[in-house]
User: Which sequence fits this backbone?
């Protein structure tokens, strides 16, 4: 990964590819990879996770833990997905086109045995080019759309269904991004009725539906009641609103409130296999990672994503081994303190 970071630094003009990706050097760099405003929302993701200590347990029989997970009929080699990026040129200053990034990401995730996700575009023709790059791997690829009104989502949902995707989602916390509020048609915050309608439209096309950007228990309840199949506890990598808590701070409350009704995922500040353990112990069933995946891909187009996930999986297995967890179900609050 050190080699990948060095190479990625030359190819990602809006990311300094810091030794520790914690949001300090890039604070306020929007559009870019930094957190909005003071950057505290990004930094809070890291500090919130770091606040949880891990309790070692070594007298047990779990020497060969099983880190595999399932997602709607798909078996994953680890409980981690690649998080979406909408426009890699605008967001990371990439030297490649977004559809090329999507193509490489889908390929790498498929080889790693996990799911790739990608973001939206204001122009349907540009989004269509992205969809064309997923090939025959729609079942292992999840598109996330911006919070357009239900009628404006029809064409996007049709694309997802037409390319064989098993699921799609909406980034509800992108409602305040100025560049998209000026788009035509504009998008914004969605009501509970809107979310129920969008979930119904997705299900009518055979798609599972995910609400991404949930930070409050009240929003989590609305997502569950809307008929969504999953939610993602996320503050958009610290890029939606300043001074938000880290996702690890709010995850336990959300999982306790709706985890029995809806699949709870989370992202924000996950960098190591130990971070994955902490997120699972706090109530997530699956975790998403963005910045490290983008760095690995830019560091080595052919092997970076696959090798990044292999390294993360090895870290996760060792963390499970040293906390006495034979499988993911065994990762409970008893593992952290």
Assistant:
């Amino acid at each position: 990964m050190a080699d990948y970071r060095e190479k990625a630094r030359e190819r990602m003009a809006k990311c300094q590819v810091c030794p520790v990706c914690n949001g300090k050097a890039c604070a306020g760099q929007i559009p870019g990879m930094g957190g909005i405003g003071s950057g505290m929302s990004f930094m809070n993701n890291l500090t919130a996770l770091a606040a949880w200590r891990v309790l070692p347990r070594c007298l047990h029989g779990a020497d060969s833990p099983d880190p595999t997970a399932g997602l709607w009929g798909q078996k994953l080699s680890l409980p981690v997905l690649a998080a979406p990026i909408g426009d890699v040129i605008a967001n990371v200053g990439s030297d490649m086109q977004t559809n090329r990034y999507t193509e490489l990401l889908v390929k790498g995730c498929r080889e790693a045995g996990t799911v790739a996700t990608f973001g939206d575009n204001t122009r349907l023709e540009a989004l269509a080019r992205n969809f064309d790059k997923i090939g025959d791997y729609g079942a292992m690829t999840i598109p996330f759309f911006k919070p357009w009104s239900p009628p404006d989502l029809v064409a996007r949902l049709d694309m997802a269904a037409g390319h064989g995707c098993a699921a799609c989602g909406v980034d509800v916390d992108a409602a305040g991004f100025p560049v998209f509020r000026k788009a035509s048609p504009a998008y914004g915050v969605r009501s509970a009725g809107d979310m129920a309608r969008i979930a119904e439209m997705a299900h009518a096309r055979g798609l599972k539906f995910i609400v991404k950007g949930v930070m409050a228990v009240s929003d989590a309840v609305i997502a569950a009641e809307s008929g969504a199949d999953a939610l993602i506890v996320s503050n958009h990598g610290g890029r939606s609103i300043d001074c938000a808590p880290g996702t690890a701070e709010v995850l336990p409350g959300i999982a306790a409130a709706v985890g029995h009704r809806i699949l709870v995922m989370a992202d924000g500040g996950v960098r190591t296999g130990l971070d994955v353990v902490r997120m699972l112990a706090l109530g997530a069933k699956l975790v998403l990672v963005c910045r490290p995946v983008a760095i690995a891909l830019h560091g080595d187009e052919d092997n970076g994503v696959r090798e990044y996930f292999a390294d993360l999986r090895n870290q996760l297995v060792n963390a499970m081994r040293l906390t006495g967890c034979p499988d993911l179900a065994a990762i409970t609050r008893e593992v952290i303190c």
